[in-house]
Design a protein that fits this description.
The chain is of the alpha/beta class. It has 11 helices and 19 strands. β13, α6 and β14 form a beta-alpha-beta unit.
Length: 348
């Protein structure tokens, strides 16, 4: 498919613009996807505000966005699993397939992953993208491409729940009720954890958590988090904590609120990269600490959960912006974090 496409590009810190680029040509094992929706992720905002995450430094002009859903318009000659017209969710990371992590199924830990919107690899705030067919998952008829764009963050939530070995009969607490906290809660409930408490400092986000099915919420500004969790659990504490805020105090509170033998799953990244945790208490309680880096083997399960109605992922979306409004979309997502839980860009 020949022609030009529009791409939204980051021109500098806090500055978005547009470029006209060539529509990519899919390789033999790739498909060309017309992108319809892309979610705005916290990492996009971090690059937009800071120009870097760790050693990954933006060199403008750079295309952000790694949560796409769209429609296949062309397939490479070796592709048999997809055809033009199929609606797909795109898993954004292409791994080497040969390292020990890939060979043992832990491909999310591959050191040579090529991931959308991780410098120097451009993302998908653009009209078309060519991507490996094996990483493009066909959506059932009752799953929209906007929901397809939300499979990426939902996959993080399911991976967190699986890292915590979530199961029926547990009581869980999710620290942080932003996008990843909410999808973690939804994943927990889809896996049979009926009692899930949410903790945050923003009441509007806690209200959203209640709307989406939280058993109860804890406003950490108004009450002592650990005391309230103990009260809610009749003094027993919780079995599982998923920490999505990336703050030391929430990780510490999670450890304190866990029962002996409980599990803490750390999802959020601290701004400094370091945390001081009460390791004596961890040892006394024989707590298991797990962590999350993206996800692996999750997309089919997450898509099925949405198709079966176990997760109504579109309810996390609070704002939809057109691609032409990308500057406002990024600025508002940075400025209005109390009100915007999840923003999505409508590409076309």
């Amino acid at each position: 498919m020949n022609g030009k496409m529009k791409a939204a590009v980051m021109l500098g810190i806090g500055n978005m613009g547009f470029e006209e680029r060539e529509i990519p040509t899919p390789k033999d094992d790739e498909v060309l996807v017309k992108v319809e929706y892309v979610g705005i992720c916290g990492s996009d905002l971090h690059y937009y505000e800071q120009g870097r995450i760790g050693n990954y430094i933006v060199e403008p002009p750079f295309v952000l966005g790694h949560e796409p859903g769209g429609v296949v318009v062309e397939v490479g000659k070796n592709v048999t699993n997809l055809k033009a017209g199929d609606r797909v969710a795109l898993e954004p990371g292409k791994t080497c397939g040969h390292c020990k992590f890939c060979r043992t199924g832990r491909y999310n830990l591959c050191p040579d992953v090529v991931f959308f919107a991780t410098p120097p690899v451009d993302g998908v705030f653009q009209e078309y993208v060519a991507h490996e067919a094996g990483l493009c998952f066909k959506l059932p008829d009752n799953v929209s491409t906007m929901e397809g764009a939300l499979i990426e963050p939902l996959a993080v939530g399911f991976h967190a729940a699986q890292q915590g070995r979530a199961h029926m009969g547990q009581t869980a607490v999710v620290m942080g009720s932003g996008c990843i906290g909410l999808v973690s809660m939804m994943a927990l409930k889809a896996l049979g954890v009926s009692t899930v408490y949410m903790v945050d400092v923003m009441q509007k986000r806690l209200d959203k958590a209640l709307e989406l099915g939280a058993s109860a919420v804890v406003n950490a500004v108004e009450t002592d988090t650990v005391e309230e969790i103990c009260r809610l659990t009749d003094g027993e504490g919780c079995d599982l904590v998923i920490e999505t805020s990336g703050t030391e105090i929430c990780a510490r509170q999670g450890i304190e609120a866990l029962v002996k033998g409980g599990t803490l799953v750390q999802v959020g990244y601290s701004k400094s990269g370091d945390m001081n945790l009460p390791m004596g208490l961890v040892c006394d309680k024989e707590i298991t600490i797990k962590s999350v880096f993206r996800y692996r083997h999750i997309y089919p399960m997450a898509i099925q959960a949405v198709a079966d109605g176990k997760v109504d992922v579109k309810k996390i979306v609070t704002n939809v912006f057109d691609l032409d409004d990308i500057q406002n979309a990024m600025d508002r997502s940075v400025r209005d974090k109390a009100d915007i839980v999840k923003a999505v860009i409508k590409i076309c």
